[in-house]
Amino acid sequence: MLWPGAANVAVSVVHVAKGKPNTPQLHLDGEAVPAINCRLRGKPERPDPVNLAANDHKSFVGSYVLGMGFTLTPAERDALIRKSKKNAERIFPYLGGEEVNTSPTQEFDRYVISFGTMSLEEAERWPDLIAIVREKVKPERDKNNRDNYRKLWWRFGELRPGLYAALAPLSRCLVTSAISKHRVFAFAPAEWVFSHNTYVFPTDQFSDFAVLQSRVHLPWAALLSSGLEERGGYRPSDCFETFPFPRDATLSPSSAVERAGKTLYERRAKYMVATEQGLTKTYNQLKDPLCTEPRVEELRRLHEAMDRAVLNAYGWGDVEVPPYGTPQTAETRRALERFEDEVIDRLFTLNAERAAEEHRGVARTSQKSGPGLAKSMPPSAIPAKRKAEASRASRDSESRLKPGVRRTSAPPSKAPPRRVANSRKH
Description:
single chain, alpha+beta, four-stranded antiparallel sheet, four-stranded mixed sheet, 38% helix, globular
């Protein structure tokens, strides 16, 4: 229930009595249930989920820049490049959580200066840029209590080299805003710099989008990332690293999950461009029962079809998919609650099974043709060829972290370059 006072929090009210109940029948929200677990759901108690090795290094927090003086407007960036083309080597598109949710194409509206892991002497090879950082960033960093932040004032507070190494072989990746009214995922170019207000997933697969955007993952994420606020937070360490994905064979490029994810993503992107609205406004409409616009209705049906494909990938064809949207009757609310309770309970069980498999050293057989979120085998079992590929990818990522390596940056313009939604680079 919502707290009746001024605080914007939700609470659960639990009454405890000493002794044995008069009746063996348990009730939750007025409905008879076989059990009530510690999470106040009508399912048996399950052990807390554990992190799965299959999800290691598959989710990242964006870069903690720690100094808005690193950021540039498009006009500032264009002026710097007109002054010296060399400046383009250390200026990158910069995407934050707000742009993920509000832009129809998840388009950035800022750039960021990045010297990566350079020494100060190396960074001074770009005198125009280091002068900006020295003027706008250093004064604040000088007051910081952390030695590393204070002494290395020309670098980001947290570089996230692991993130950019994972992104190096990809043309795009999945992102979501750290705080969001609706938990939504979208693709963005992998060569951009992502702010600490985003979570980034190094995958270009529609099947991974389908699973994360499905109502299989979302209730799990909401439960394990829950806090005092009603706004939707997301903690990958709690809800992603523990999440048991369907077996890799069911997420191949030719799979039903891939097709369902691709269809929804492309129709959703087309609708957002046509209506000039971002993900938040789009999902406000999707969850508004009074909105009967035909294109919105189509997106709801595509969400349901995607949920069905994801459930089938788990082998859970017996679970009925509820209508997509906000329930308006007690019956539809209970149907959604039963769906979420059942899915969450099965995920808890599956998490324990996968953890036991990993403990025994059972490898998952990957049938994906490209990079994806699922890890096919433990690191010790990766063939030498794949280790070499990973090493090359890590070196490629240093274009954002080391001096003297130029990444192609967008040409000067009066506005950020508009990318075509849903285009996949080959």
